[in-house]
Write a sequence for this structure.
């Protein structure tokens, strides 16, 4: 799952304006799953939360694959998909905080980055500037952040040495993901600076 990377470079010139497409329906399902994932985490139903996280986070790949395979890439989907990703990952972050599984500063690291990218993307859109293409580093960072959430929930199910090991791995994966995400954001900052001058 990627942190909102509204890169114009990922959207083909032939992208249509259709809204009712199979990929967008899959993305909508991911959005509808958010309350259930949050509920499972804050109530301590970690087995259910783990399954939901893995299943619905994987739909981010599924909708992209279907968009290309069915030739149903759309301008709406190019914005809707990453926006839902943002809702999903931020909601999970706050749910983990509410369940006392992560500190507030970890949540803020994710949220501040997301808000920054959204603001930059908004300014670029208003100025009529095409945002940079989604970077592999940004995608990797987002994937790592969500993987860290999955590992953390899995650690709550595991016990003994496995649980301890999963928590240590979670910390490493999280910091690697956040670092990559912030570095990727610099590309948008440079685009904003160029649009101002």
């Amino acid at each position: 799952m990627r942190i909102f990377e509204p890169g114009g470079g990922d959207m083909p010139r032939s992208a249509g304006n259709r809204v009712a497409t199979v990929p967008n329906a899959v993305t909508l399902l991911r959005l509808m799953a958010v309350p259930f994932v949050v509920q499972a985490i804050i109530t301590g139903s970690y087995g259910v939360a783990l399954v939901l996280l893995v299943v619905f986070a994987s739909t981010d790949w599924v909708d992209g694959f279907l968009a290309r395979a069915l030739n149903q890439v759309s301008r709406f989907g190019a914005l809707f998909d990453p926006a839902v990703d943002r809702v999903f990952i931020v909601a999970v972050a706050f749910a983990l905080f509410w369940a006392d599984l992560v500190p507030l500063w970890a949540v803020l690291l994710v949220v501040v980055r997301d808000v920054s990218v959204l603001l930059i993307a908004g300014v670029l859109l208003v100025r009529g500037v095409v945002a940079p293409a989604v970077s592999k580093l940004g995608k990797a960072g987002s994937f790592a952040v969500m993987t860290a959430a999955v590992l953390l929930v899995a650690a709550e199910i595991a016990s003994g040495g496995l649980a301890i090991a999963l928590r240590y791995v979670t910390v490493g994966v999280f910091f690697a993901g956040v670092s990559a995400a912030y570095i990727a954001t610099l590309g948008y900052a440079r685009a904003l600076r160029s649009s101002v001058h």
Q: What stands out?
A: The CA atoms of residues 37 and 49 lie 6 Å apart. Residues 1-15 have pLDDT under 50 and may be disordered. The two ends are 33 Å apart (CA to CA).
